[in-house]
Records
---
Amino acid sequence: MKMIISIVRDEDNAAVAEALIQNGFRVTRIASTGGFFRRGSTTLMIGVEENKVDEAIKLIRETCGPVTDPGVKRATLFVLDVAQFTQV
């Protein structure tokens, strides 16, 4: 199991989360702020099976809007190993 932590711009949050949910991914949203200009962002936590990581990343890449400011990225993604996953 893998955990994708995706930090997306607030303006892309709804579209990215909706695309992931529509394609069967579970998403947890956390409001966050970061970067040099302290722009609003949302952190999406997505638990996925290892064979679905590329599909999730592709959806995020395709759903984020275009970059409007030079040097500003559309999203930052981290893919982490998950040692244990439990739902209570």
---
Amino acid sequence: MKKGNSHNNSETFLAKWLDGELTDKALENLVSKEDYAAYLKLRSGLRVNEQLNASVDGSFAEIQKRIINKTNKVRPLYLNWAIGIAASIIVLFGVFTFLNNNEVIVETGYGESRTIVLLDGSEVILNAKSVISYDENNWENDRKLFLEGEAYFKVAKGKTFIVETDFGSVSVLGTQFNVNATEDFFDVICYEGKVGVKTLESDRILLANDAVRYVGGKSIEVAQGSDKIPTWIHGESTFKSVPLRYVIKALENQYQVSFDASAINDSEIFTGSFPNDSLNIALKTVFQTLNITYNEKEKRNIKLRYKE
């Protein structure tokens, strides 16, 4: 049972999770619901702290107070991840106004997809390396969530449903659509119903099979599609006239690899697909058609260059 885990075991699970040895789903099955929610907030705090560049001096004791047993006896922390957690605690104390107890955060790991059923019955399918967050207590009055990465939405009818991203927002009443908000790439495809897409530059309405795309803040024309749902849900990532750098990013998210693309033109346009369950086939599918060779120069770090 989750609740039977000792704090010593919880520390071990947390250390492995932060080092990438455990997926979010695996950690959720190993610790209590309360601990899992706390760990997600710790990681979110760490990310904000990287931007703030705050000092961790004097805060290490606070994290020790957080990870203790019921008798308040402090257990030693593993050196390789303790400083990172201490940093996130600084952020939690400093900016807890937006990481409040009502916020729900769901995140996927490399190569992982996950289905989430929201309080109103709406469904969200998260693609690899994506995050959603929303206010659980206020959901009935304000159906709004924030997305980083890619997700497919099946929205139950009701009040306006809003997906906020760093690039713009998508609003609907009841429909099915896909949103990809990765780096400076913002792509919205409507599969059913009607979708409103609002950015700083424009405000558009999409009907079924319509799509809109922004790359680097600039609107890009996208051909209408005929798919019923996104192909990535069934294990195949598909791209239509997408700059290669975003295809490379999708490969990294699915297979937990990194690419050195310094020797190629990563703005080259790619149209095609790759499977999400075979790295070798995926590499061949993407790069051989573009006359690009790929060599693993060190573990899971792949060098790309053009064939001579």
